[in-house]
Amino acid sequence: MTITPESTLFQPVSLGSMKLGNKLVMAPMTRSRALLDGDISDAQVEYYAQRASAGLIISEATQVWRIGGGAYLSTPGIYTDEHEVGWKRVAEAVHERGGKFVVQLWHVGRHAHSAINGLGAVAPSAIQTEISTFIGPEGDSEGKSRVGLPHALTIPEIHATQQDFADAAERAVRAGADGVEIHGAGSYLPQQFLAEGANQRTDEYGGSPQNRARFVIELVNKVVDAVGADRVGIKISPGLPIGELGETDPWSTYEVLLNAIAPLELAYLHAMYRIDDPVVDRVRRIWPGKFLLSSGFNGPVTEDDYQEAIERNRIDAAVIGRNFLANPDFVERLLISAELNAAKPEHFYAGGDTGYIDYPTLWV
Ligand SMILES: Cc1cc2nc3c(=O)[nH]c(=O)nc-3n(C[C@H](O)[C@H](O)[C@H](O)COP(=O)(O)O)c2cc1C
Asked: Residue 296 Cα, ligand 1 centroid: separation in angstroms?
């Protein structure tokens, strides 16, 4: 299937209250260009504004509270008035250019390093991983250091953490974001609760699939109460082979989760899967709402593949990362089948403007 200007990828789609001009969604991508306290830099405002022709921009993962950051340096927050001012600048810049924009809400759980957030880490269970992270700028002499033993959240702390997501969602919407995406993927805190290897609790938040899904189900409900279901999406990555999750039979848990949150009528579900995986069709059958797919990390995928999946009604929109990263005018290039800039991985997390806001467009 060849992409033409008439292809459905370039046609509008609604996700809850958001009316997208096309079905090319920019994937959430951590870029480590925020200021050290999680404030938004001028370069971030410029970076997102440059990419506003995406149907929707999903922001880089953004911590809902100080302890929820701490896995990587220079990542943004959405829990102080200053953060809110920064995201307002991004929202205005994207809207001025006709784009739509949601903030991805993030809590890294046991991946946090005390040298980064000054606090340490929390998790469903006190299980230390072998994971190491850069605690100084990448490449500097401090190098990588192993994360510590996380504190197992008490029940009141669980409720407070869920509320942190709701408060962050409220801030994001107050800042002018069109909505929020709950980061339930990537082996971070929500996925740590879902996964039997990371969650060995014996209370109502651990054990059975229903209990392991409880944290995320309650979390989604609280965020929906805060900003309305039509502005809330969630990203999942069942069975993701990173982060020492130990998900042996993810579907038993994810079916419980999806069935429980389906009646809320969220704006969308966003999953990371191989595009040719039959699980994509399984999700499509049980999820009644809009379904977005990001396939790139699980194997090679082309825009033609996404176009075909949309034509066949397997998914509703394509979530594309590195091509948007390297091509501010990705949509325009695809429309005329122009050559794409190649992404430069050495600049993904390196800080600075190079490999961030200096990718060329076809027209100035
Ligand atoms: C530099 C980089 C940073 C990423 N950071 C995030 C993130 O913050 N949150 C997230 O959900 N996914 C993150 N991802 C995964 C992307 O959202 C996407 O799933 C992945 O890039 C595959 O799509 P692609 O092949 O089109 O790039 C990141 C990917 C890259 C390349």
From this structure: 8
